[in-house]
Amino acid sequence: MDSYLLNNFKDKQNCSSNGFTLLELLVSIVIIGILAAISVPSWLAFVDTQRLNTAQNEVYLAIRQAQSQAIKNKLTWQVSFREQNDIVQWAVHLATKNPVNAIWNNLDPNVRLDAETTLQQSNGVGQIQFDDRGNIRKPPLGRITLSSKSGGKAKRCVYISTILGAMRTGKEHDEPDKNKYCY
């Protein structure tokens, strides 16, 4: 029995200790840091692009809603855009209603109206009006261009293409078209 205890004790002494050495831990941390440094900027760019896509879709649907309401009610309807407290907002309302009294909806707070935006302005509010047939009431035609507040090249735009109210969406390009990069 004593020899059994002695052998068991010797076996435990010969076992190496479990766990990682300090060098192994440092190498693992450095590798994780390098992978994070490579992937984080790509992830942030992806998130910004998704925010812009969502905002572009929301703007497109708001314009379509104004056009639909104009046709449905046989009245002039308007979609309005403004920046309030550094947040882009939109509202769909009768053209006879003062935009200040409209119900405003916020876009994502990380999205801004880009300088390429060309809307008819009235008291700091960009607007597009549709007549009772869904046609643009007051040309010129407009474009809403959205970009990220955090920078980057990503842009998304919504165009009113014709006086008949045809719309299309676009995104940034490397080469400008008439000094505009979103088309």
Structural summary, described in words:
The strands form two sheets. A five-stranded antiparallel β-sheet has the order 3-2-1-6-5. Strands 4-7-8-9-10 form a five-stranded antiparallel β-sheet. It is an alpha+beta fold and 183 residues long. A hairpin with a 6-residue loop joins strand 8 (155-160) and strand 9. It has helices spanning 2-14, 22-73; strands spanning 77-84, 87-94, 105-106, 111-113, 120-122, 125-130, 143-148, 155-160, 167-177, 180-182. The chain has a single domain (21-182), classed as minor pseudopilin epsh fold, CATH 3.55.40.10. It is 36% helix and 31% strand.
Please state the structural category: alpha+beta
The unreliable regions are: none
The separation of the N and C termini measures: 88 Å
CATH class call: Alpha Beta
Number of helices: 2
Estimate what percentage of residues fall within beta strands.
25-35%
Shape: elongated
Strand numbers in spatial order across the main sheet? 3-2-1-6-5
Order of helices and strands: HHEEEEEEEEEE
Helix content: 25-40%
- Radius of gyration, in Å, reads 29 Å
Please tally the β strands and state the result.
10
* CATH architecture tag: 3-Layer(bab) Sandwich
The biggest sheet amounts to:
5 strands, antiparallel
Number of domains: 1
Please identify which CATH superfamily we are dealing with: minor pseudopilin epsh domain
> What is the third-level CATH name, the topology?
minor pseudopilin epsh fold
Write the layout of secondary structure elements.
Layout: H1 2-14, H2 22-73, E1 77-84, E2 87-94, E3 105-106, E4 111-113, E5 120-122, E6 125-130, E7 143-148, E8 155-160, E9 167-177, E10 180-182
Antiparallel strand pairs: 1-2, 1-6, 2-3, 4-7, 5-6, 7-8, 8-9, 9-10
